[in-house]
Write a structure and sequence with these properties.
The protein is α/β, with parallel strands linked by helices. About 30% of the residues lie in helices and about 15% in strands. It has a single domain, classed as Carbonic anhydrase (Beta-carbonic Anhydrase, Chain A, 3-Layer(aba) Sandwich), CATH 3.40.1050. Strands 2-1-3-4-5 form a five-stranded mixed β-sheet, with helices on one face. The longest helix is centred in the N-terminal third of the chain and has 15 residues. The radius of gyration is 18 Å and the shape is globular. The two termini are about 35 Å apart. Bound molecules: zinc ion. Zinc ion (ZN) binds next to loops. One of its GO terms (molecular function) is carbonate dehydratase activity. It comes from Streptomyces albus.
């Protein structure tokens, strides 16, 4: 599939388009017979940003890795939950964290949470996890993984910033 190919005009919902695409996918699909344990024993935590094609950017193939994505690619309790299951139940050993330039979280502050509370009358239990300094946020995320008592494998944990204009990763030490 080309990412630049024009899509046919549609008056239906985007979900209908996805379901149609799935039927085409399944028509050509053959069961790869894979195990649930990632072949390359790595879990990648990344931002949900639509410009970040993780498999293409990292040379990953189907079955290679666990992919855990959220707004910012931040390490929350739920990210730790997924990493814990990934390592303890499904055999991964390495963790790769990927933030990126131009992240939507750079424009937000914790005021987002306050404004939300004023609007809906309920304070969200979660932090926005906004940040101003992307490198510092990668370091913060690295620290959260490296200090988590739930993770048995914390030796190979590395963090990067993906440049959405060049496609290159830059490691944050
Ligand atoms: Zn982002």
């Amino acid at each position: 599939m080309s990412t630049t190919a024009p899509r046919p005009e549609s008056t239906g919902s985007v979900t209908d388009e996805l379901v149609t695409a799935n039927q085409e996918y399944a028509r050509k699909f053959t069961d790869p017979g894979m195990d649930a344990r990632p072949v390359r024993r790595v879990a990648v935590v990344a931002c949900m940003d639509a410009r970040l094609d993780l498999h293409a950017a990292l040379g990953l193939r189907l079955g290679d890795c666990h992919t855990i994505r959220n707004a910012g690619g931040v390490i929350t309790d739920d990210t730790i939950r997924s990493l814990t299951i990934s390592q303890r139940a499904l055999g991964t050993r390495s963790v790769v964290l990927i933030h990126h330039t131009g992240c939507g979280l750079l424009d937000l502050t914790e005021d987002f949470r306050h404004e939300l509370e004023l609007e809906v009358g309920q304070r969200p239990s979660w932090a926005v996890e906004s940040f101003k300094d992307i490198d510092q946020d990668v370091r913060q995320s690295l620290a959260r993984v490296r200090t988590s008592p739930f993770l048995p494998h914390r030796d190979d944990v590395r963090g990067f910033v993906f440049d959405v204009t060049t496609g290159l990763l830059r490691e944050v030490g």
